[in-house]
Amino acid sequence: MAVSVVDLIKDPMLCGISYKIHYELLRCQSHISGYSNEYVAACFPPYPPSDSDMQICLLLRCFYTPKSMLGLAFAIPLLFSASGCEQSDPVVTYEIPTEAPAAFRGDTQQMLAAMFPAEGKTWFFKVTGPESAIELVESDLKNFVTNVKFTGGNPDLSELPEGWRIGADKPMRFASVNIDTPEKQLDLSISSLSTQSDWDAEVLANVNRWRRQFGIPPSSKKWAEGEAFEVAAADEQAIWVDLKTEATDDNPAMAAGPMTAPPMADVMNSRMPNDDVHSGLAMPASAAEQPATAESQEDAKEDADANSKIKYERPDGWRTGRMSSMRLAAFNVGPEDAEAEITIIPAGGDLRGNVARWLGQIRPSGVSDETVDKMIEDAEKIVVDGKESQRFILEGEESDGKTTSIDATIVPLEDGFSLFIKMTGPAETVADQYEATTSFIQSLKL
Fold it and tell me: Where is this region: Disordered (predicted)?
C-alpha cells in the first residue's frame, strides 16, 4: 500500500501508528512549514510518549528541518520500519455469562389463592406471576384477606394496601386489583361462586384444578394440600394455597409466560363430529388432554368470552371448550376424570322431538311416549334474557357403573329456531354444576 507523507499526517490509522507518534508528526510538520519554535511549543507542547514509542518520537525530532520536506522524507521510512504498516489490532478478551438473562428464561411461576365461604357464596382471591414478584406481596395479601370485611354481601375494597388500586372490570370477576411491585404489576382477581353443600369436596376440586394448571399432579389429601388459615368473615374454614412451577422443557407453556395460548389452533379450527345438538355425547379425549396453565388458560378464557356472539358471565372453573362453526360457546367443567361438556348451539326442531332424542342418547334401551311427556311436564321454567324458557334435567341409565346426565335449556328464538344450552357428562358432575349452570343461563344476553 502506497502511503504519502500527507496521507500519513492526515490519517495515522493508515499505518496503525499510535496517537502519540501522530502528535510528533504534527509538530514536525509545523516546523517544516516555517512556524517559529515558540509557536510550535505553544500549540504542541512535548507529549511524553510511551516507552515503545520513545525511539520513534526522538527520531522524528532529529529531522526537524524548517521549510524542507527532506528531513521528514528520511524519517518516514524509518518510522514505517519501526512501527510497521501491518500492525494488527490487539486481541481483546470478553467474559460472557453462560446463563441467559432473566428476560429470556422462564422464571418460576407462583400462585397464591385464598378461598372461603361468606355471605352465602364461596369467595376466591387469586394472584399469579413470577415468584420474584409474588413473594413481595404475599404478606400483604394474606393480611388483607384475613381482615377483609363485607358490605352488602360483597368484600369492602374501599381501603386497600399501599400500591394497590382497583383495576378494570373483567368478565366473571367481582373486582380486579392491580398490585405494583418493582418486578411486575400483578393482577389480583376476586370472584365468587355459589357454595356447595360439601365444603371439603369443593376445596379439593378447586385446588386440584389449580394444581393441574400448574403441571402439578392432583392430590387426594384433605384440601389437596391447601393450608387452613383464619379469615374473620369466613363461615367455614378458610384455605390458603401456594403453588409454584419451574419453567422447564417439560412445561413449556409456563416458561413462555402469560401471553402463551394453548396449542389448540388445529382443534379450534376443525369441525366436531358431534356438533349437532341432537347427536352423541362423548367429548374427544384430546380436548381434555390439552395442557392448561394458569396464565395461558386465563388468556384463552378472556379471548373466547370477548369474541363470543352472545354475552354471558362465565362461572369460575369453567374452562374454554372445543369450538366449531355451529357453536356459539363451549366449556368443559368438573375434574378431568369426570368431565362434563357445555355447548350453546342455535338449531331447529320441535320441543318434544328434542327431548325424545336426548333421552334416547342416555337411555339406549328405549324411551316410552309417557316418559317423554312426563319430562316435558316436569320441565323447569327459567327466564333467559327476557324470554320464557324451559330447562330439562335428564338422567340416563347406568352402564358399567356410570350414569350420564343431560342438563338442557331451550330458549325460543325467531323463525322457528331455538338456542340450546346443553350440558352432558357424568351424573355427579352435572348435579354439582347445577347452581353454576343456573347462574350462567340467567346471565346470558342474546
Answer: 275-307
Spatial separation of the C-alpha atoms in residues 201 and 391, rounded to whole Å: 27
Residue 258 gets the label, from left (phi > 0), alpha (psi -120 to 50) or beta, of alpha
Q: Per the domain annotation, does 319 fall within a domain?
A: yes
Amino acid at 410: I
387 and 283: one domain? yes
Q: How many helical (H) and strand (E) elements, i.e. helices and strands, does the chain have?
A: 15, 16
Domain contains 98: no
Which SS3 state, helix, strand or coil, does residue 408 take? strand
Contact (Cβ atoms closer than 8 angstroms) between residue 331 and residue 441: no
Q: Which of 3, 70, 4 is nearest to 31 (CA)?
A: 70
Grid cell in block for residue 380: 323447569
CA 346 to chain centre: 32
Q: List, for residues 309-354, the tens digit of each pLDDT value.
A: 789 999 999 999 988 767 899 999 999 899 999 999 988 777 888 8
C-beta of residue 155 within 8 angstroms of C-beta of residue 170: no
Q: Are residues 285 and 413 in the same domain?
A: yes
Beta strand segments in 379-433, E: 380-384, 387-399, 402-412, 418-426
329 and 304 Cβ atoms separated by less than 8 Å: yes
Question: Are 354 and 319 found together in one domain?
Answer: yes
**Same-domain status, 334 and 413:** yes
| Structural domain for 284, as ranges | 265-443
Verify that 160 and 228 share a domain, yes or no.
yes
pLDDT tens digit sequence for 205-244: 999 999 988 889 999 999 999 999 999 999 989 999 999 9
Q: Which of 251, 274, 303 is the last residue of a domain?
A: 251
